[in-house]
Amino acid sequence: MNEMSTRPWPAGDDDKFHEECGVFGVWNATDAAALAALGLHALQHRGQEAAGIVSLDEAGIFHSHKGQGLVGDNFGDAKVMASLRGRAALAHNRYATTGETALRNVQPLYADFAFGGFAVAHNGNLTNAHGLRRALVQRGCLFQSTTDSEVFIHLIAISLYSTVADRLIDALKQVQGAYSLVALHNGAMIGARDPLGVRPLVLGRLGGAPGEAEGGPGWVLASETCALDIVGAEFVRDVDPGEIVIVDDAGVRSIKPFGRQQSRFCVFEYIYFARPDSVVEGTPVYGTRKRIGAELARESGVPADVVVPVPDSGVPAAMGYAAEAGIPFELGIIRNHYVGRTFIEPTDQIRHLGVKLKHSANRPALEGKRVVLVDDSIVRGTTSRKIVEMVRAAGAREVHMRVSSPPTTHSCHYGIDTPERAKLMAAQHDLEGMARIIGVDSLAFISLDGLYRALGKPGRDMERPGFCDACFTGDYAIPLTDAMGNAADRQLSLLQVSQ
Amino acid sequence: MNEMSTRPWPAGDDDKFHEECGVFGVWNATDAAALAALGLHALQHRGQEAAGIVSLDEAGIFHSHKGQGLVGDNFGDAKVMASLRGRAALAHNRYATTGETALRNVQPLYADFAFGGFAVAHNGNLTNAHGLRRALVQRGCLFQSTTDSEVFIHLIAISLYSTVADRLIDALKQVQGAYSLVALHNGAMIGARDPLGVRPLVLGRLGGAPGEAEGGPGWVLASETCALDIVGAEFVRDVDPGEIVIVDDAGVRSIKPFGRQQSRFCVFEYIYFARPDSVVEGTPVYGTRKRIGAELARESGVPADVVVPVPDSGVPAAMGYAAEAGIPFELGIIRNHYVGRTFIEPTDQIRHLGVKLKHSANRPALEGKRVVLVDDSIVRGTTSRKIVEMVRAAGAREVHMRVSSPPTTHSCHYGIDTPERAKLMAAQHDLEGMARIIGVDSLAFISLDGLYRALGKPGRDMERPGFCDACFTGDYAIPLTDAMGNAADRQLSLLQVSQ
Amino acid sequence: MNEMSTRPWPAGDDDKFHEECGVFGVWNATDAAALAALGLHALQHRGQEAAGIVSLDEAGIFHSHKGQGLVGDNFGDAKVMASLRGRAALAHNRYATTGETALRNVQPLYADFAFGGFAVAHNGNLTNAHGLRRALVQRGCLFQSTTDSEVFIHLIAISLYSTVADRLIDALKQVQGAYSLVALHNGAMIGARDPLGVRPLVLGRLGGAPGEAEGGPGWVLASETCALDIVGAEFVRDVDPGEIVIVDDAGVRSIKPFGRQQSRFCVFEYIYFARPDSVVEGTPVYGTRKRIGAELARESGVPADVVVPVPDSGVPAAMGYAAEAGIPFELGIIRNHYVGRTFIEPTDQIRHLGVKLKHSANRPALEGKRVVLVDDSIVRGTTSRKIVEMVRAAGAREVHMRVSSPPTTHSCHYGIDTPERAKLMAAQHDLEGMARIIGVDSLAFISLDGLYRALGKPGRDMERPGFCDACFTGDYAIPLTDAMGNAADRQLSLLQVSQ
Amino acid sequence: MNEMSTRPWPAGDDDKFHEECGVFGVWNATDAAALAALGLHALQHRGQEAAGIVSLDEAGIFHSHKGQGLVGDNFGDAKVMASLRGRAALAHNRYATTGETALRNVQPLYADFAFGGFAVAHNGNLTNAHGLRRALVQRGCLFQSTTDSEVFIHLIAISLYSTVADRLIDALKQVQGAYSLVALHNGAMIGARDPLGVRPLVLGRLGGAPGEAEGGPGWVLASETCALDIVGAEFVRDVDPGEIVIVDDAGVRSIKPFGRQQSRFCVFEYIYFARPDSVVEGTPVYGTRKRIGAELARESGVPADVVVPVPDSGVPAAMGYAAEAGIPFELGIIRNHYVGRTFIEPTDQIRHLGVKLKHSANRPALEGKRVVLVDDSIVRGTTSRKIVEMVRAAGAREVHMRVSSPPTTHSCHYGIDTPERAKLMAAQHDLEGMARIIGVDSLAFISLDGLYRALGKPGRDMERPGFCDACFTGDYAIPLTDAMGNAADRQLSLLQVSQ
After folding, report:
1. How many Å apart are CA C142 and CA A81, to the nearest integer?
2. Taking a C-beta distance cutoff of 8 angstroms, is the pair C345, C368 a contact?
3. Residue range B399-415: mean pLDDT, rounded
4. Glutamine amidotransferase type-2 domain: from which residue to which, for each copy (chains A, B, C, D) (predicted)?
5. What is the DSSP string of D127-177?
6. Which fold has domain B18-264?
7. What integer best gives the mean pLDDT of chain C?
């Protein structure tokens, strides 16, 4: 899901990539909404700004609760949980943009169709949503949100097909872009991935407690395996690219309306997004990150006294690097996990202390040392510069930055909140320039081939790379229809709500 | 506006009629939203459960704020008011039903059409909304609220006409029921009353400060004249039954697409709903109520020591009665105006104290007296019974109830929240039975002819009564299409939102 | 209770007197806290800014809940009410000043003494509180609030007497000023009035449900009889000036430690503060107000077409005036009771609309008429001026103001929030000047003797007036010790709390 | 600071020790309150339940804001920060018990003394507070909180000395227990540590921006050096055991009224409480923890495939263990840092999933492995048992628990929230029993001598250990006066507040 925007590319508010969403669905389970809340909690890293759950009860009534903030802040109330009745539920975590649009854009989206209620949760981004929306509004469709995901709803509503599955397929055939979605109607839970399988989606099965089966097993669809683990569901398989799975009381059926295409799974899920204990597309994330670190050490080793990760995301790569390089791994930077929702409005005097709210230097581990800093990526470079400054202020003699991704030179159009190209440091500067900007003695990124080697390939196959790596290569496998269009057409709503 | 309901007739939570809404619109005024808030405040008696304002700024952007509760509780915040930019605004007070549906049903409703933004506020109730909604959903329209008013929005969205006014007329021609509505789009403010003019709507003109004109005068549309007074607007005229007025920078235009029909203005506005200082359809409310009281004294005089109103609504009729009968008018019942939103969850021991939260007996004015109690209406009879009990407990020797409306024997389908017939005391009991139930020594209602006499007619003209008095006569001038249909078809939304 | 202040005299934020408090205590009743909430509700007119209840359970544990705003807003929650366990409770309504001090100053005050818990609620104002506080702080006592009432607590804490009653008497003997207080400890409820009986306090007895006795009757102490009525308590008697009543399971005992003094009950309770249905010091309020109106008509009659009250407080006097003068009583001003806690931050353009939030002119009742306006008092004159302006704008031909109190020339030091003398219109201008300022054709106040006649006396006895009328006469019967002192000494707390 | 309790020993709500507080004071700095908020943020690990800041402005007025929850949740509001005016501030983080007492117990405490305002923040626990409180109440002192810290306030208030410093020393001489406190009055900031220096306190100096000096340097007192780092203060020195430092515009003065005693600094600060990047009592925490891990490996090595920390606190010890043992260090357990304030009310079905909200197993790193799990301590054993279970469920072949503290056999009375002895696993079971309970193949704790060796000593000197290790040894260096007394005397307040 992505908020459609008049800005060419939506921009995050700090110097990191942001995954836009986590999705979770459960079918045929006691306490379905509680399982959904747990699943969302395990997927919290995919979106911390808003969360929503829709449940479906035995009488065909849907129950919804959504809120800003963490899962645990919104679904801890016993009354709320009790209101989310039923044995099926759908849930969504959002990395939201700020401001008035927030509430009406929180998913799952819901609609009363002629054939009954329907809810959908979407991870990804559609690349022809603006054009579709324009055409739908022209036809008399009234949009309530400014998310691209709402076009699914209207396309389904106006489809001339009769079954829900056929209407959904009809809708999917009209959209372009990346999507992993889970939908719920009175009769089935449906999962779908776009034909290239850019965003992840896995299927799990509930055996015993807590979601024990009544008249058959329970089923879970989720963005990552860590959400299966927390609810005690057994991993069954990844949903295939272009596959639609229909889960109902008869079991799981699969439809593949798009034929066979080569997968282009998002390689950044391995580098940064996915939780280290998840297994994505058959490969454990944690081990992959350590292997990338080891590749990095082989490619760009440098004499040093300590290898220090930028926590938490840089830790596994730093461990791999340290082991390969034979240099001690040290926690030279401590992360403060207690950062609240808001913090001090900084005055001029304290503004430059900002970055230290999250990270602090562990001086005794850095003082007088030659330090290899390992981070997962550099986007704008501002955070890196501040961290390097902090490490030097703590007495490091040399600072060598090693990055476990190739240089990020292009924006993502498939669901990751990346700044526009003009703000990507690697799109504007060569290696030497970047090193100077962030203030390091040396700088190296993993090579594209090195990254693919860590993923078990001999290198990047230019014809059939097997992953989406557009942010490093500009090789956009799905057409960027809206991006080619007229930015002036992108005004989506004339309403601004004061909440 | 009315929440469409699966219940045959929506039922209020206490023993009074409830007007469902007040509407207010302003065009071409400095501080338009502030004027709208003041106008809503003056119309607060028409709905206390929720309030909303939508403004329209010079750039064509709409700004919205809605909330539960009183106007003063929602529009006192300087930030909120500052966000409601522009020289035009639309506002709505709601008497809402409780529960989850509240927030999405708060008006004004807004939609992004292909031709731009559009907001509408509606007072009244449509009698064929269920059928229209079913057809629209069948066509692929997605409803967001459960109010009947939303059908206006969709009918406009799918209209094949090109101008906004034509689309609105197209929509109005398809609906049945009572409506006074004000709409706003980038270019004009539009007011409309249903062909029989059941609900009120007046036009006013802003001269000097505070809403002084820039390049022409400002204009106001409101449910009652008291809302013109508070913003310093001059009363121009009532909007006619079936008239559509279009207010734009060129001035006020009038369209009458429904031809000429006999007016059936709601007579209960005179008896209870309208504020006493309003002038409705050319006649001051306060004086009318005193005349009804005087008629009542002539029709059903009884020897007594004091005439006591049930405050506040019974006061003018009691004054008229007392003057005509030559019996002293006394404040024998004191009303406590500080009743908060919620109050004590009554235990069994204190439940019977409930009614006393609003009223208390002024014992010295009642003790040993023969009391004529004057009230405006009796719906279920439960409140009346408790008040009579309280008056007797304070020492009244005799209690004679005189009611300034005829017996309420039928439910309203045109925008007033009335209980179903089975709960209307006058539909179930004769005069004697009612007197026994509420515990009075005598009971009398104004006669239908007496009521019309107080309104300046010789009596009720059975052919052309000139007012809607269906709640007393069952003479429903607008077809009750939905009410004839199948109650099972009235399920509007399968979603329940926990807020 | 009064917030001690560095300002010479505390000043209200609008142009009315404000009673500072209502007190209510109940002993030996089922649902004691619920009865206390009802009692507070009936006393809501004595203070709308904050409310608090402390209950005492069988185990000797006290339970407390306090909040800003109306009783109904704070004591409607079932969990809150359930937490207020026990068969005894103490409650307090406050007319509070704004700002940070609010919360810590909300009563009842509570303290853990060596002999157990103790709670107290106070209506009135101490005139030597600053000096006592200074001495107590010098001794090492730590004050938590800035209310004068807290000196009671510390004086009791450090008293060398052993019983609670003796400690309380010891404390009372050291304070000067006006107080009606109710206290609660494990063993008894205690009521006390200052030796001159300036503020009211009544004793009631609970018979049957809802606060039915278990092992003896229940007892109530309250500021006014209307609070007895709402809980179904029978009026027993006023507590005498200087009397201490001790209510425990053995019944009611009386102590009169101050000897016999002449009563100086606050005459303004009759004019404005008390609820019209209360009987204070044996005399019904409603009838007294009507008699004052009749006196006023006799003293200062003027040819006119209508007598119009400034609602709600001016209504009974206007009725008395109208009846005596034989001029019709009309509701020429309508009061809007829906004024929320806050309202629009007025811009310059709408600031002058301010007063109309509460009152609106009923034009048809005023147009072309010679109007006698009846109000209870004039303080600063600003509100009166705006109301007269509004009445004239509605078309009144003449406006004659008649006031049911003598000119307010002095500030109250005994518990009423009055502006300093410099802001009292009657202290600065003669009758003619006042008439000019408020813009009336004629102005008259009731005479002092006329007021006493309406109270059943032959006139004011200069030696033994029998009432406190210091605000009209400057005859302060209780020494104004603090007011004589150095204003610089009145800084009470160096702490400002941001809530 | 500790909430005084009727329970023999306060008990935490989960299976970890809890440090009760962090304190921070700043003198002579621009944006003093903002620095205090940053300092609190750096000390957030010492208390997450409530936070408070009191500032002192140039006019001698104190400004206070306190709230439940994280620093960032309470001090992010610009209005709040703007209200905390002045160049000096005092701040406190609290690990609070739940329930009604929370708000009145949040520090800093403040009092208006005869000599002016006074605020104090306290880390530690007094062991004779009950007795002192009883005596003070007997004398007429009224307590507002139920914290032991309030006795400081009253002892100062009633002291017969004249200077603030002398009154504070007078008070300190009467208390027993552990305390590091910072106080603020108009004239000076004062820091004090108890004679044995059980709890930490450091002094720092502000040079340039952001808290640049005006007429002299600024000064900081804080629980740990990490709070100096975040505000850019230079570490000056630890405050000595028994030392009182007085910081005013003349600089820093030192008073040592207790003579010279042997330090008994809390050894658990090294093991668990202090942040790894802090330097406490001259020794870096991070290095110490790694040395403890290495000692543990030497003492209790076991053949294994991986060393896995229980994150985050077990990480440095696990790194030390792994390096010493030559076994790979792996992140076999992932910690979820997004745990909100509340979470799902667990139904029976999902209750056993509870522990997984914080930790999840990284299956690929554990499957088929012999695992050494390293944790910092075991209190009740319940968390350990669940973690071991989770690790086994993820496929671990063997699980060996190694603990970087000796067995916790005694409760702490000096400021750490420990369960009573009966709930300490090590107080009730031998090593074998413990291993069976938590379900491991082997279990070992660091030895007492090993711990001292890691701290640079040859072992524990039984005569002069140099640290407080009472929780491992029962060697309580400060008398436990209250604990010896009668539990029935420990009722502190009879008031329960519903908030």
Report:
1. 46
2. no
3. 96
4. 21-250
5. SSHHHHHHHHHHTT----S-BTTHHHHHHHHH---SSHHHHHHHHHHH--E
6. Glutamine Phosphoribosylpyrophosphate, subunit 1, domain 1 (3.60.20)
7. 89
Check residues A8 and B298 and name the one with the higher pLDDT.
B298
* Minimal-distance CA residue of chain B relative to C329: B319
Query: Quick check: C9 pLDDT over 50?
Result: no
Second-level CATH architecture of A287-462: 3-Layer(aba) Sandwich (3.40)
The answer on pLDDT for A260 being more than 90 is: no
Asked if C179 contacts C192 with a C-beta cutoff of 8 angstroms, the reply is yes
Best CA proximity match to C113, nearest among C153, C171, C59: C153
Closest CA to B408 of B15, B6, B123, B126: B15
* Inter-CA distances, A185 with A325, C436, D129, Å: 54, 75, 63
C360 Cβ partners below 8 Å, 6+ apart? B42, B226, B229, B230, B275, B277, C333, C334, C336, C390
d(CA C121, CA D145): 21
Q: Are D46 and D273 in contact (CB under 8 A)?
A: yes
- Residue A171: predicted pLDDT: 97
Residues in chain C within 8 Å Cβ distance of D499 = 65
Which of C1, C4, C21, C164 does the annotation list as catalytic? C21
Catalytic residue from among B4, B21, B120, B192: B21
CATH of domain B287-336+355-457: 3.40.50.2020
Distance separating alpha carbons of residues A223 and A351, to the nearest angstrom: 37
DSSP C3: B
Could you give the angle at which helices C382-393 and C431-438 cross, rounded to 10 degrees? 50
**ipTM of the shown complex:** 0.90
Same fold, A18-264 and A287-462: no
Question: What is the arithmetic mean of pLDDT over D297-317?
Answer: 96
Distance from C-alpha of A245 to C-alpha of A222, rounded to nearest angstrom: 12
Please tell me the distance in Å from C338's CA to the nearest CA on chain B.
7
The full DSSP string for B62-101 is: EEEEEEES-HHHHS--HHHHHHS-SSEEEEEEE----STT
Q: How far apart are CA C151 and CA B249, in angstroms?
A: 66
Mark yes or no for CB contact D210/A353 under 8 Å.
Answer: yes
**Looking at domain C285-336+354-458, which of 3.40.50.2020, 3.40.50.2300, 3.40.50.720, 3.30.450.30 is its CATH number?**
3.40.50.2020
In chain C, which residues have their Cβ closer than 8 Å to the Cβ of D74? none
> In Å, how far are A296, A372, C201, D328 from A319, measured between CA atoms?
11, 11, 78, 10
Residue B328 has pLDDT above 60, yes or no: yes
User: Hey, what are A405's tokens?
Assistant: 């991704």
Q: Who's near A252: CB < 8 A, 6+ residues apart? A: A203, A219, A245, A246
Q: Which of D339, D356, D365 sits opposite A72 (nearest CB)?
A: D339
Q: In B, what residues contact A, Cβ < 8 A? A: 54, 60-65, 79-80, 83-84, 110-114, 116-117, 137-144, 153-154, 157-159, 186, 492-499
Give the mean model confidence (pLDDT) for residues A384-411: 96
| pLDDT tens digits for range B19-37 | 479 999 999 999 899 999 9
- Measure the CA–CA gap between D434 and A219, rounded to whole angstroms: 38
Measured from the Cβ of residue D99, the count of other Cβ atoms closer than 10 Å reads 10
Contact list, A63 vs chain B (CB under 8 Å): 495-498
Domain boundary assignment for chain D? 18-264, 286-337+351-455
The Cα D46–Cα B108 span in angstroms is: 50
CATH number of the structural domain D286-337+351-455:
3.40.50.2020
**Which residues of chain B neighbour A58 with C-beta distances below 8 Å?**
none
Q: Which two tokens stand for residue A255?
A: 């439809």
Of A63, A84, A496, the CB nearest to B63: A496
Query: What pLDDT digit, counting tens, does each position of C428-450 carry?
Result: 999 999 999 999 999 999 999 99
Q: How far is CA D57 from the centre of its chain?
A: 29
